[in-house]
Design a protein that fits this description.
single chain; 203 residues; alpha+beta; hypothetical protein PF0899 fold; four-stranded mixed sheet; 71% helix; rod-shaped
Length: 203
């Protein structure tokens, strides 16, 4: 009887021990599965963060390069414009000022204008010259113009260089002062400057 009781106790103990082992193994297996899932999820999130960071880094790099390129292009354009402006201004200031204070040049210009106007009938002109030319305009200057036209009156005023001319009795006046001539010639000179100094660079 005692032996049977010991056998029963041992069997119950063994059954309980096996059940406990199985439960422990199940718990351990679930724990491993959960751990793998957590690790997998963490890796996925890490990969996503790395990918996002790389995308943002690439975007920032491209954006920075684009901004630098744009800034470089704008700076070069401003520099070119400034160079053209300086060259044009220096060439025009010297050349136009010299021509606009040359009595012979002014005489030729006035005669050409007068001949064109003369096609419509008799022409008498009112010519305005710089005060600086008063001592350089002699009777021969006026006589040469009157020889071709019907009349000429000359007035000296405070203009820097060049001249203004209009038909007598008309309110229409042509302005050939040095500033007007520079404004007229600047676009043409700018084109030449660009062609000669910048065409080879492709800009």
């Amino acid at each position: 009887m005692e032996q049977n009781l010991d056998t029963l106790v041992n069997r119950i103990y063994e059954d309980g021990l096996q059940k406990a082992r199985k439960e422990a193994e199940d718990i351990l297996s679930q724990a491993h599965a959960q751990a793998e899932e957590i690790v997998k999820k963490a890796r996925g999130e890490a990969d996503s963060l790395v990918s996002k960071a790389k995308s943002e880094s690439d975007y920032m790099k491209q954006s920075t390069e684009s901004e630098l390129q744009l800034a470089s292009t704008q700076a070069l354009s401003r520099l070119r414009t400034e160079i053209i402006s300086i060259l044009s201004e220096r060439v025009l200031s010297d050349s136009v000022k010299q021509a606009a204070l040359d009595p012979q040049f002014i005489q030729q210009m006035v005669l050409e204008l007068g001949k064109n106007w003369k096609e419509d009938g008799p022409v008498s002109l009112e010519l305005t010259l710089p005060e600086a030319l008063r001592s350089r305009v002699d009777s021969g200057f006026e006589a040469a113009i009157k020889k071709e036209l019907d009349g000429l009156s000359i007035d000296f005023r405070d203009i820097s260089a060049g001249f203004q001319v209009q038909k007598k009795g008309s309110s229409f006046q042509l302005d050939f002062t040095d500033e007007s001539l520079k404004s007229l010639l600047k676009p043409y000179l700018r084109k030449i400057t660009v062609e000669r100094f910048f065409s080879k660079s492709g800009n």
